Structures are given as structure tokens and as C-alpha cells.
């Protein structure tokens, strides 16, 4: 059966859902608030579970061509120099079990093209404000509908989702600069910490659309209310702090010549117990918010989209929404719990937690079966991501 489906938000999750559902023969219209659909943010890592969804919509090849394979995540403490994070992906010659570091613009372009190819209609300049009687309402446009189903993929500030989230005390500034050789491996996400109140990261992230210049995503952790003070201070003061904590990173960060090159991201933590209502499915950040410490945000949105599409293919619509929620429940809950537990060890004012991290958790993480468990955690498949939904032959 074919449905008329509206999607609020042309982000990674929304466009993935659009491409999957259009392939099933449904009529898909995506509404987005921007004049032209575009990504927001810098680099991110698509884990093997997310790459599998990209392959479902035919975007995997394009994404891998623009991204950069990441085989290791390595972090050390600035003062002592000791390793405090070391996770290695499985070394697979086909690249199927490695992370894919990619700029959001390149990922967005790959998914957008896959959605357009299968006939998805995108309506920009439509800021969704409400869903009433199966009609979407907008800030400055006439209502549209009725729709058999509305999918809320409008992100952390969604007007349709009832989610209540607790703001996290730390966020980060993010930017993108050309990659330059400074002694860091190009297949590694590298981080440096000072206790838990400073975190610096460099991630080689592939190339931007229309360019063959290799890029790197850079980030610097800071309290969520510290951005204005950072912008008011001379940029050279901040770069001197980076060089003091991590001299090797100085050539990368010296390419930041304006405060405007770095964007502040603030995080919150919360999960909807029921990510659906009558004729409404909620996916991505509108359904579950967390810090990016485990690098799962975009992956979770794409997994939501895939689970929802599979549920709609296997069940009548009234049964598909609870089936989608059930399929994603435990994967979401476990990763949300892990994010809640790990984040304060890397982003907080605590002196106790980073000592616990450095002297107990990290040594334990290097012995026995623990490295394999951590690899599965980072890859996103510590448990099946949609356990109760299996494709039908």
C-alpha cells in the first residue's frame, strides 16, 4: 500500500527516511525551514551500522569517495602524556568495519542526491510549527495535508516532539580546516585532554563537495556559557593555549584566523519513552538527545529511519509505529546510558572522574575481552540496532 508521507526537516535522518520510503513507492514530501536545504555542522563519523544504511539508499559509494577511513581513536592526557583512550576498529581490507570520517556537507550531498533520484519532493522555506488533524502548519505558509504519516526529523529544537532534555554543562566549538601534515596519522581521530575541563580533537574528514582538498574537523571543549568570553578574547590567546596543551596540533589550529570559523555546539541529554503518536513518528535528535562523545548522533538518526521504513514495509501503518519504537528501544537506551556515563569523564569540572578514567578505566580497557567490547560499542553494533525487525525475503 502506498502512503502520502510528510517529513519535517531535511537533515541526515529526514532525507534518509525520505529515500528509503520513496523506494518503497510512497509519496514523500520533505519540508525544511531553510531557503535551500543545507547541512549544519562540521565533521562526524559514520560508523559501520550507519554505512550499512547509506548502502541501503545507494549513497554509500559517494560518501566513501568523499570521506576518510578512520581505523583508530586515540587520546592522551596533556600533562602526563599517558594514553587514556585507545580504540581500534577491525582492520578490514574492504573498509566495512572502519569508521568513515566525513564533513556534513559531503554526507548531506550524497544522501540528498539519493533522495532526489527516487522522486522525493523537497519544499524549502517551510518552517514547521505544528501538526493538527494530519495537516502540517508553518510559520509563513498555508497548512498542507492531510498526510497519512508525518515524520518529525526537525532536530533537537523540534516543535512537534514532546521531548524534555537536560542541558549538559559542556559543549564545544567546531570548525573545518585543510589537513596538513603534522605527524598525526590520517586514519586516526586524535584527542588530548587536560583532566575533563579541556578536550581538543583533530579528525581528518575527507573532502568537501566540489573539492579534492583533504580537510580536518577540529574541536575544543568549553562550558556551554563560555562562548561569548571566548569570542571577546584575542584568537591568539586561545591558540597559545592549544599549543601549550598539544604542541603537535599547533599547525592545524593556526589555520583558524577568525572566530567565525568555529561554531558553538551545545548539548543536552534526554530520550522519548514513546517516539510516536497518532500519524506521527519521531526520529533522530527529536527523539533522543545526547552528547557526541560516542560519535553516534547521525548514525542513530539513520538507524531510526531504516527501522521506521522496515516497520512500514512489514506492518499496516497503525502497527508500524509501535513496531519501529520497539525495534529501536534497547539500542537507543543502551547508547544513551553509555553516553550519560562516559561524557562527564571527558567533559566536566570533576577532578575525581578523570583520575578514575586514567588510572582504572583505561588500564582495564586494554585487557582481555574489553578492547573488543569497546570496538563494538564505537562501531554501533554492541547490540543489534533494530533487534525485532528483520528484512523479509
Features:
21 strands, 393 residues, single chain, six-stranded mixed sheet, alpha+beta, FAD/NAD(P)-binding domain, 11 helices, seven-stranded mixed sheet, globular
Structure description:
This protein is an alpha+beta fold. It has one domain (4-166, 267-379): FAD/NAD(P)-binding domain, CATH 3.50.50. The chain has eleven helices and 21 strands. The strands form five sheets. Strands 6-5-14-15-16-13-17 form a seven-stranded mixed β-sheet. A hairpin with an 8-residue loop joins strand 15 (198-206) and strand 16. Helix 1 packs parallel to helix 8 (297-314) and helix 8 (297-314) runs antiparallel to helix 9. The chain is globular, with a radius of gyration of 21 Å.
Please give a quick description of this structure:
Keywords: Monooxygenase, Oxidoreductase. The chain has 393 residues and is α+β, with helices and mostly antiparallel strands. It has helices at 12-23, 48-56, 60-66, 104-117, 227-232, 235-245, 250-253, 297-314, 317-346, 352-365, 370-379, and strands at 4-8, 27-31, 43-46, 68-70, 72-77, 83-88, 99-103, 121-123, 128-132, 135-138, 149-152, 166-167, 170-178, 188-194, 198-206, 215-223, 263-265, 268-271, 276-277, 280-282, 288-289.
* Main CATH class: Alpha Beta
Query: Assembly type of the shown chains?
Result: single chain
Shape: globular
Beta-sheet strand percentage? 25-35%
| Helix percentage range | 25-40%
How would you write the strand order of the largest sheet? Answer: 6-5-14-15-16-13-17
The CATH topology: FAD/NAD(P)-binding domain
* Content-based structural category: alpha+beta
GO molecular function: FAD binding; monooxygenase activity
Protein name: 2-polyprenyl-6-methoxyphenol hydroxylase
InterPro entries: FAD-bd (IPR002938), FAD-dep_Monooxygenase_BioMet (IPR050493), FAD/NAD-bd_sf (IPR036188)
Pfam family, one: FAD_binding_3
